[in-house]
Description:
Strand order of the largest sheet: 4-3-2-11-1-10
Shape: globular
Radius of gyration: 21 Å
Largest sheet: 6 strands, parallel
Distance between the termini: 57 Å
Amino acid sequence: MKKVLVVIGIAIVLSLAVFYLITSREYQRLDSRYVKLQPGKEELIVLVNVGNGDRKYIAEKINKVFQCNPKLIGIDLYFKEFSPEIEQDSLLLNSIQNSKPILATRHMGIGTQGVNKVFLNAALDHGYAELNAENGYVSNFDVFREMKSKKDFHFAYTMANKIDSIAASRFVNNLDGNNSDVVIRKLSDQFKIFDFNENINCEQITNKVVLFGYLGPTDEDKLTTYARFHDDSDASGPDMYGPIVVANQILMILKDEI
C-alpha cells in the first residue's frame, strides 16, 4: 500500500512539474512576443492623469498644456454628451477648439461612436481606442477598419501619423492585413506622468506628445498585459492603464515594432 502511495505521489509531482514546464515555456513565448522593453525614461510622450477631475478641470489642464507648445495633444477620454448651457461643457469645447487635439472614440464595428460631434468637429482628428484580448490579456488591435469605401483608424495610429506620417505609413504597409500585436516597450514608471492636481511644468511639455487620460486612483481603465511580471504590480490584477498602453502602441508604430 505504501509503495502504491509513493508511486501515486511521484506521478502527481511529475505531472505538476510537466504542467509547470509547459506553462512556463508558453509564458516565455508570449512574453517575448508581446514585451520588448527598452531601457531609460521615455522622452517623446508625456501623460496627464485627469483623475477624478470634471470637465472644467480637464479644460483648464488642456489649456495649460497647450500654452507650453507641445508637439501634439491626445485625449484618451470619451465626451459623449454636450450642452451649450452647461459652463464646463463650453469650457471643454473652447479648450478643444484652441488646442486641436486628437480625440479617442469608440467604434464597435459600426463607425465612430462615443463622442459628441460638437467635440469631434472642434478637434484636429480622432480615432477609435479599442483593443483585443486573448485569454484575458491585451494582445492585439485593429490598426484600421474598413467601412464601405473608407477606413477608420485606431487612436494610436492617428496620433502616430500626425507625429511621423512616413513611419506610420511604413507600419501599415508592413502589416499582413489590418491587425497588429500590442508590443510593450516601456513600463508605467518609465513615463513622465503629471498626476491629478500636479502643476504642469512647461519644461517637460514643450515639443512633447502629451496624452490625457485616466491613470488612477482606482482600477478603472486598467488592463492586463503581458508586461505584468516586469514591474511591481499585483500579479492577480490588472497592471497597466489604458493611456500607457496607447503610448506604447504609438511608440511601436513609430519604431515599426511588429
